Amino acid sequence: MKKKIHAIGSAMVLAGIIFAGAGASGQDKKDEAAHKIVHFSDLKWTPLIKGCELAPVAGDPSVEGAQFVLRLRCVDGAKIQAHWHPNDESVTVLKGTFLVGMGDKLDQSKLQPMNVGNFLTVAKEMHHYGMCKGETIVQVHGVGPFKVNWVNPADVEPPDAPAAKPKQ
Question: Do 122 and 84 sit in the same domain of this protein?
Fold first, then answer.
């Protein structure tokens, strides 16, 4: 019984420290500036390939050795042709179904489905490809520089051109 009381007491002390620290008045302004919530509506989407857009979430993916987080949003049926990255890549499915395969050419018979919450790591320089079922959003994180190197650039469909603005 004494051990049980001690464990409960230790947990309560730890919880008190955590909650007290969260509201501590002596917290550095620097620490407060480092805490940033990114709302989905704040993301700035840029066309990447036909049917897919990319948005930075945190960090700078172009900086050597810097951590980054990106989101990729694709329409149903979007195909991401075979490519590779100079560094390891980690992917989490946030929405839809992301189908992924390894190799030099997109082969639908070899695609493996990843559902919401599934996580994938791809080693640097590993050739891989993907396809989306339903509107799909994946979160990519890693260490920069982040670069997409297409295995067969001729297979990649460029993003749709923006609609022409009507003349006034």
Answer: yes
pTM: 0.76
Residue 161 lies in a domain: no
Which residue positions in the chain have pLDDT lower than 70?
Answer: 1-33, 161-168
H helix or E strand, kind and range, residue 126: none
User: Whole domain around residue 28: which residue ranges?
Assistant: 2-33
- Measured between alpha carbons, how far is 20 from 12 in angstroms, rounded to an integer? 12
Secondary structure of residue 165 in the 3-state scheme: coil
pLDDT tens for each residue of 140-165:
999 999 999 999 999 999 997 655 45
Taking the C-alpha atoms of residue 68 and residue 59, their distance in angstroms, rounded to an integer, is: 4
Q: Where do runs of H (alpha helix) occur along the chain?
A: 2-22, 29-34
* Confidence (pLDDT) at 36: 87
151: burial class by Cβ within 10 Å (0-12, 13-18, 19+)?
Answer: middle
